[in-house]
Predict the structure.
Amino acid sequence: MGGTDGPGVLVQCPGRHGGAAAVAAAHGAGDDRRGLRAGAVHRQRGQRGLCAAAGGHTVPAAAPGHDQPGGGADDLVADALAEPPPGALDLPAAAGGLNPEGEPMSLSILGAGQVGMALGRAFTQRGEPVTFGVPEPARPQAAVAALGPLARLTTVDEAVEGADTVILAVPYGALPAIAQARADWGGRILVDATNPLAPGLAALALGTTTSGAETLAGLAAGARVVKAFNTTGAENLGDARYPGGTPFMPVCGDDADARRHVLGLATRIGFEAVDLGPLKAARWLEPFAMTWIHMALRQGLGRRFAFGLLRRD
């Protein structure tokens, strides 16, 4: 901001369009195997039309933190089969972290819509196994299979049961049922990639005095909730490379170890991960997501931009 010597916000726009769409269940992804991580890449080849979202209203495809079915099955399969972009694999070998049994941390994604598939593809392209858990596994079966042997599809319950870390890439309205489906989350890291969007993306349903992430933490007994992956579109989650620098991904959560692990996941898929401290910082991250949505969809900037940090020495 003007008048400060600290970091500033940089809006970066790439030089060309990339693309992908996603169609699949709005809830669910995961794995019952240890050693899994999840993430995905999907770049849109043009702007999609309006898609029906959970809650009975329509939203443009792949709004940050508001995943939903969209596009067609052929689009998903084509995106999954697409070649990784140049340099996409030139990242650290792993996000790191061991579970209490001393095994590699496993990561499930609940949701196989645009955000879920974007995150999943990004990780499989980097050699990380991914399991998607959805209510109706038959729906995204072809798209998940197209990701290759590192991708697996199962039910939501099995996905959660086999995971140390679970990313929620579902509509915000689905969170209460998911959170309360388990009496005890057993210390799992629950990554909230959603935003509490009002109908039509015109506003947030809540904010500034609380947040969707804090609400989730109050419902998911025994979970270590971390807010991340909610402040930008699926295109950027899938391919974070920009000619002007590295987009940043803010992360917050009350558990320091859980937060550190998710910072590693964000770094793994190409972001400059920024630690914002405790979970109450989600009160600012969710409105920040609305800034991206407003610029992209209301002000006509399009979806090919991301926020980064500028620093003074």
Remarks:
- The two ends are 16 Å apart (CA to CA).
